[in-house]
Design a protein that fits this description.
five-stranded parallel β-sheet, two-stranded antiparallel ribbon, 7 helices
Length: 226
């Protein structure tokens, strides 16, 4: 399995089924600003509310071969019916659309990992479909070790990275090493106060500027000697 984060904004995703499993899929897809089409004769109250608010599109009947639009990016099969899952697999193959089947894992083109977020930090993990409960337990273990303060430090490091790139148009190897050093410090000391962390970043910037100033002075001296 090749791990990847997809930008679903504005892309059509089809959900087959209207139960609790489908509802969870729909919730995550809407969070990522995807366009969602649901095909199911029965739907949960939550999905019904979303449809009334025009948050999702709905075809209120059983899936029929040919229902999947040509422009669909992803299909989530949540019907619980093995025969339906097989038909969906065939249509997805014909239309070259990626399928996730909650009914028959062997039919999946991709697996939805257990994941959590801390601001811009998004951590996902998978057991490659072997056991979702194990993936959840592992996610809960890791989630408890990632404090919210770490996201604020990431934002501070992002600003530093952008400033370094803005000054020179690109980052050099030494600056990449500095970013890695600061990042490791943040990860190893997540509860370090932002004020203290900011001072560390400022000190690194001063060192960079001082080194650049000395380098510039040497270059001028060499130019005069020529």
């Amino acid at each position: 399995m090749y791990p990847v984060f997809l930008n679903l904004k504005g892309n059509l995703c089809v959900v087959l089924g209207g139960g609790k499993v489908a509802e969870r899929k729909v919730k995550k897809l809407l969070k990522e600003k995807a366009e969602v089409l649901i095909i199911s004769p029965e739907i949960t109250d939550r999905i019904k509310e979303l449809y009334k608010k025009n948050k999702v599109k709905l075809i209120r009947r059983e899936y029929r071969f040919g229902d999947i639009p040509e422009n669909a990016l992803l299909v989530f099969e949540c019907t619980g019916d093995t025969e339906v899952a097989k038909k969906v697999r065939k249509e997805c193959e014909n239309k070259k659309v990626l399928l996730n089947s909650a009914t028959v894992s062997e039919l999946c083109d991709f697996i939805v990992p257990a994941s959590f977020q801390r601001g811009s930090i998004h951590i996902a993990l998978s057991t490659e479909g072997k056991c979702s409960a194990f993936a959840r337990a592992l996610r809960e273990k890791i989630e408890g070790q990632i404090p919210y303060e770490l996201s604020a430090k990431l934002n501070m490091i992002e600003k530093l990275r952008k400033n370094l790139k803005k000054q020179k148009g690109k980052k050099e190897k030494e600056e990449d090493e500095i970013l890695l050093e600061i990042s490791r410090l943040a990860v190893e000391n997540p509860h370090l106060p932002e004020k203290s962390f900011s001072k560390i970043i400022e000190e690194k910037i001063r060192k960079i500027k001082s080194k650049e100033s000395k380098k510039g002075a040497k270059n001028k001296k060499r130019a005069k000697e020529r």
